[in-house]
Amino acid sequence: MMNDKVIACSALTKKFGDFYAVNKISFEVDKGEIFGFLGANGAGKTTAMRILCGLSYPSSGQATVAGFDVYKQQESIKKNIGYMSQKFSLYENLSILENIEFFGGVYGVARKEIKERSNTLVDSLGLQNEAKKMVGSLPLGWKQKLAFSVAIFHRPKIVFLDEPTGGVDPVTRRQFWDMIYEAAASGITIFVTTHYMDEAEYCNRISVMVDGRIEALDTPANLKKHFSAKNMNEVFYQLARGAKRTNE
Amino acid sequence: MFRDRRTLLVMFGLPVVQILLFGYAMTSEMKNARIIIADNARDVQTGQIINKIKASPYFTVEASVVNYKDVEKAFKKGDVKCAILFPSGFGNDLLHHGVAQVQIIADGSDPNTAKTIINYLSSIITDYQQQSFPAATLPYKIIPETRMLYNEEGNGSLNFIPGVMALILMLVCTALTSVSIVKEKELGTMEVLLVSPFKPVMVLISKAVPYLVLSFINFTLIVLLSVFALHVEIKGSVFLLFAETTLFIITCLSFGLLISNTTGSQQTALLICMMGLMMPTMVFTGFMFPLENMPLPFRVISNIIPSRWYYIIIKAVMLKGLGFAYVWKETLVLVGMTAVLLTIALKKFKTRLQ
Asked: How many angstroms from the chain centroid is the CA of residue B42?
């Protein structure tokens, strides 16, 4: 396995009985890359992500994340990644600072560091006045931005984003992606899944999963050329409409 | 409507279970009460009375001894619920002096049961009197002297306090722990915790510890109230009482952890704990209705209810003033239950991740 790649999978498979949720997928992700992991609902994205996050064992195949093996080194993987999902970001009944303290502590960031970095974080988001307020009182877009900052607080090698901008207005989404660019520029690899095809254009490379397999893997520009499509929406539509399983 | 199985279960299942439970458990009759007989007279008369007791379905003779010390021991061990003691020369006194005494002792830590037992024994004696000396010219009289052991004042609600303690701890600890874990699942925060370096076992522990502390405080409050407001004194070691209670709280927390693994919604968790557990706990702990009265299947089931064992321990320590030597068996049962529950809960928790 190539250890200088931040993520490397080879013939990764996960089956439940006779059902192949993930069927021999292979790909690599470079450091600092923004990698879009696309697919219809039920295509196997979430299952694949769970394996990469060290939450579940593959049935067969190989994968390393941040240089650690997904079979034997799940704990090391967890320490070196960040995670954020649409469903949840932070504890609503804790304040912003308390949330940062909690997650910082969980990932082993030293107390002093937590203090310094949290001040920087709050300043950079312009939330100085809200720092002690409950997260639950923030509007959704702010919560998601905050959650992203917390997810990379411990400077992980990769951050996994599971549909992070769901339900957020376009302006906030743009701001969110600005933050993602910044993180990528500082060397953090971004692994993001999304249903917004315009966001797919922001990625360095994209893979599209259909029925458990990767049917396309390339830069957005190349994909559009290959499928003679005007935008990623059309690319996706051409790939996904042949899918046999959808799991709305 | 039929697709919502869970609600159906609650709607029909719970009431049915409750009626069965209450129907079979609730009887003010007392059957198979274990009695120990100390016969110092060993004459025809005592023999006849003892035979009546043996023949009665209300009593099971546990042993026949001579010494009062053996009687005391049997009560301490919890082997018997009552005792009847005949002084030497009983028959003689009765035939020649027209008056004889007999002592009836009942375990007063269960006052209602004790009173019923005393009544039964007294009526057996009265029966015997009337049968053996029907047309009495001399008023032959057997005077029973009764004692309620551990509860001389005859405080009727004595056994309720330990019983209620057991019930409250069991329901509250289980409900709170299970709801809090399910809440994390519902909110989605569980996912984030699991992705982090936080080990699964630590997640469970960190959920349980706050409730351990809170329940402990809760228990302290209950004890203070019992002692100062209800005037129930703690006859045994306070340290032992709190130690055993801590163990029981941990058992209940483990049970709560297990329940949290089986459901995905807070509502269901709460429903299962509060309503589903309440009736069985009340019935099978044995403080509302004596366990001896219930049909065999019930008595078997009651063995797996943790509060039943805790109730025995708490009665022994609080009301009877007994030491660890008398409750080590029940303590061991609780420890075993906790170990099993925790293992299963942890395993289920980990499997869910895969």
From this structure: 35
